[in-house]
Amino acid sequence: MTLLMLTLLIPSLSAEGEPASPPEIVYEKFGQITVRGRVYDHDIVIERGEVRKRKKGPSKKQRDKYGHTPLTPQEAIPWKCKTLVIGTGMYGRLPVVPELEAEAERRHVQLVILKTKEAVEYFHAHFGPEINAIFHITC
């Protein structure tokens, strides 16, 4: 078993919507990420410092085409940002469909697509009010 540990600090938002004190995020191992002390065993979306579950249902109909449920623009993508970081899993196997890339371009959102470990590092290094993320935590 490989143990992968990254600590990422993400500010929660103050009442004014500005970043406040940063809570801890730990990406420990395949299939698990901890945010603010809460363990998640599913993909997550971070939008303006808030964490929610990635709801991949709208993308499941394309699973056979890609061999894995891809990330598509039919999902609730956190578009209100300048940069969207996508973590494609420990081995980089989450497919990102061309339609999502086209939608990002149309919305003038820069996509940064990396394996999840590197995506977490990038997100941490560039965090601010104009960056959101989607992290696939398994393959």
Describe this structure in words.
- The chain has 139 residues and is an alpha+beta fold.
- The protein has a domain at 42-136: Hypothetical Protein Mth938, Chain: A (3-Layer(aba) Sandwich).
- The protein has three helices and nine strands.
- It has a five-stranded mixed beta sheet, sandwiched between helices.
- A hairpin with a 2-residue loop joins strand 5 and strand 6.
- It is globular.
- Mean pLDDT is 86; it is low at 1-15.
Task: Name the CATH superfamily classification of one domain.
Answer: MTH938-like
Helix content: 10-25%
Helix-strand topology string: EEEEEEHEHEHE
Q: Which structural class do the helices and strands define?
A: alpha+beta
The coarse overall form would be globular
Low-confidence stretches: 1-15
The order of strands across the largest sheet is: 6-5-9-7-8
**Count of DSSP strands:** 9
**Major sheet description:** 5 strands, mixed
CATH-derived topology of one domain? Hypothetical Protein Mth938, Chain: A
Rg, nearest Å: 14 Å
CATH class of one domain: Alpha Beta
CATH architecture assignment name of one domain: 3-Layer(aba) Sandwich
**What's the tally of helices?**
3
Portion in beta strands: 25-35%
